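Researcher: I'd like a structural prediction for the single chain below. Treat it as a standalone chain; there are no partners to consider.
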Amino acid sequence: MRALDRKLWRDLVHWRSQFIAVAIVVASGVALFATLRSMNGYLVNAQQSYYAQGRFAQVFARFKQAPLNVARRVEMIPGVAAVEPRIVADVLLDVAGLEEPATGRLVSLPVGRGPGLNVPFLRRGRLPHPRSPREILVSDAFARANGLVPGSKLGAILHGRWQLFTVVGTAISPEFIYEIRGGADIFPDNRRFGALWMSYRPLAAAFDLEGSFNDLVLTLAPGASERDVIARLDRMLEPYGGVGAFGREDHISHRFVSDEIAETEVTSILLPTIFLLVTAFLLHLVILRLVATQREEIAVLRAFGYGKGAIAAHYLELALVPVAIGSLAGAALGYWFATGLAAVYARFFQFPKVKFSADPWLFLAAIAIAGGAALAGAFGAVRRAAALAPAEAMRPEAPARFHAGALERSGALHWVSPAARIVIRHLVRRPVRAILSSLAIAFAVAILVAGRFGFDAVDWMKQVQFGRVQREDVAVTFGEAQSPAALYELAHLPGVLRVEPFRSVPVRVSNAKAGDRVHRTELLGIEGNAELRRTVDADLRVHRPPRGGVMMGRALARILRVGPGDRVVIEVLEGLRPVPEATVAAVVDDLFGTSMTMELGALHRLLREGDTLSGGFLAVDPKGSADLYARLKRLPSVSGVGVRESALRGFERTIAESFTISITSLVLFAAVIASGMVYNGARIALSERGRELASLRVLGFYRAEVTKMLLGEQALLTLLAIAPGLALGYALCALMVLRFQSELFRIPLVVSVTTLAFATLTVAVAASLSALAVRRRIHRLDLIQVLKTRE
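Model: Treating it as a single chain, here is the predicted structure.
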């Protein structure tokens, strides 16, 4: 073995604790990068393969009723590749064991028209018989949430008639990866909403739609213009009550999955980059201080004929060994995390069995990035080692020229103990080293703040949406717009304490000046003094619906590129289908969706209709809720019932759960890195000052006094790092918020006192544990050996 190789292994053994800390930090960064990038690739591949297998449509259209021959006319539109006419209807369900009424979206199965589009994949059981009026297929998530199996019974109101169905199978579909009703609902509740499939003929008979259909999905030929096809389709379906076709990008299930992919795209680059930058910084400090303690060894090597290149290569190898070990461990850990997370995503998004397969190039890239970061961090220190001339290096470093500073001249140091005086002087006289050491700990604090920030954001979103916006107990939606008499009926249902009406219509809104800025959304009308459903911004300010103009969220305003005072064109997609212009009265920094709001009377005038309503928000006496739900299950005019508490639980199972999975992993990695940073700082300080501390012990200082000098310095550096670290962490949170803002929801910039305390406490605990480890080493110092050599 070469002499430099023997020295390499001796240095690794001697500095093992520092290099182990570096390896752990590298492993955390590589594991995080590999996990998040693997999940991004997994989601993209799973989505694309699922869409291809299930022939997921690219354009969707709803209307009142059209004869089946219209589907053949749609097939003739240039650019249309395949068409699937369907019957789709929302119905109330009576599920055994569920007190509240559930909502089911009945979808007809294709009849002899090839493989069909949006094909359901059977999980259990079989397909319904083509002519059976009592057999249905239910979505697998809805079945699991309600304990339904083939042979279970479901009650439902179809077109005003009560029917009892038998579940013959469960299935999943690319149309319902994210299974929600739509409209005001943006969180899935698998217990109370599910997709149902039924054969076309019995479903058409139940809704008096024989020989016709009310829903259409289609795919496009390669190179076809989606915008042109939608425009032609809208003109063709307008006589049949069309409510506006839309593309796949506006399909809520697709949009949620795509947003999740976009989130993993951002986090898989931003967060590992921060971790690896910390790794580079940490490794730079380790190698730089190692070189400082090995001046004499470097001089001996140069004197024995070793060139600058050999010495530089030696220290680069020393830097790469812990990085290589950490990279391999991180790759293995990342693969394990990614495999488990892929199974969670497959269940969460109701993908078919998509086996996770690791991309070897991705893991090699992670290792290469970690190695590059290590080389970048060690480069300056290695260059310094190679540049030392033998004669200069053989001499010990010239002692620093100290002089009385402002602190000494002020007389403040006379009031502290000699040990404290030594600590303060040591920091003040080496400001650059003190700043770098404190900055390393500040990075650890910042990572912890950024890691736990997601919990604060989710909790704030929950408080705003379910504590300030949705204050109703129950939201009732009618299948068709009703007269004011329906409000009177709702008010007299059992347990109802208060009712507030609302009117919701589908619209296509565009910038009046830039017509290419178009978005499909819902226009909601509520009373000016509404208390059960309100518009609240991220700062908890309540915004009342304007009597003139519209109020929209910042996400929609950003899409349309409009602000207060600008004009928008609102194309109403139902009823008389007016196309008025309106002024943007206010832009609200809300957290969810892209809907617009108007005062109810103003919306009626815009629609040129009477005092119609789409439903009502109900405040309910808990004692009468059971009777209320029983009555609602039998009302033929009701198509949907939303329960706020159920929506809250749905939120916690979706957004909160998905955040918790990733955030918990991130916080664990951040805590490991924080501990590694603090411990390394203390150990390096001990290595640097071992000779000095031993000298003090020989001069008569007690072990406790010497320990206080070193650990007091580390405690002061840690204390000075807390405030900058918290500020840096807040800046990282702001960067993450800026990089991820979707249409479905926006992450608020909310950093709680709990998160700040958590970051501070974690670093304090890491510092305390490091202090205990370093204290043991101080007590075990061999004074004679330390005074002989810096090694």
